[in-house]
């Protein structure tokens, strides 16, 4: 696999321009926006979907419990 798209900030390389775009938008030099609401858990993520997956797999929560805890969480900017 040829990695032709490189991030100018951290030098990570990707084979698709879209992957670089997502990296720059959500990950590179970004503080994690979402933290696990379970007490004693230090998990943090830049993506709400990753937090939901964590809660399901690591804490055994149901989709209803996860939705109740995460529906009010926002990204901090307006969605288009």
From TrEMBL:
Superkingdom of origin organism: Eukaryota
User: InterPro entries, per this entry?
Assistant: Znf_C2H2_sf, Znf_C2H2_type
Q: Under what name is this protein listed?
A: C2H2-type domain-containing protein
What positions does the domain C2H2-type occupy?
5-32
Q: Name one Pfam family in it.
A: zf-H2C2_5
Coiled-coil stretches noted in the UniProt entry, renumbered to this chain: none
Keywords, A to Z? Metal-binding, Zinc, Zinc-finger
**Molecular-function GO term, any one:** zinc ion binding
């Amino acid at each position: 696999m040829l990695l032709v798209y490189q991030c100018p900030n951290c030098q990570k390389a990707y084979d698709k321009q879209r992957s670089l775009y997502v990296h720059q938008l959500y990950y590179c030099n970004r503080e994690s926006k979402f933290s696990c609401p379970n007490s004693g858990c230090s998990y943090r993520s830049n993506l709400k979907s990753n937090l939901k997956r964590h809660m399901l797999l690591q804490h055994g929560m149901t989709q209803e419990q996860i939705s109740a805890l995460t529906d009010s969480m926002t990204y901090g900017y307006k969605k288009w």
